[in-house]
Amino acid sequence: MPRNRAGDQRARRKGWGVDRCALILHSLGDIAAIFLGLWILLYLLDANQANVFVDVVHGVADWLAGWSQDIFTMDTEGLRVFFNYALPAVVYLGIGHGAAAWLRRL
Known about the structure:
By secondary structure, the chain is mainly alpha-helical. Keywords: Membrane, Transmembrane, Transmembrane helix.
């Protein structure tokens, strides 16, 4: 049975754009979670706060987690930092992966 090559080509192009958009959303969620996780790790390992790399990671993590600052107020500073930055990391992963999966199903 002959295949409709023009229709196949259109379907591939449409799928390619959706897949690329889904990959971008997926990657953005991953990158945000990586910055937040890296800041948690650097903080818990007592990294040098005067270091430029640590300062950049802290600045990006603060910007990403600005909406969730001080949701958890614990006496132990390490636990407070962990939970206040881990929550947005999980949210960004969920949104990025969920939006990518939703787009791929369209």
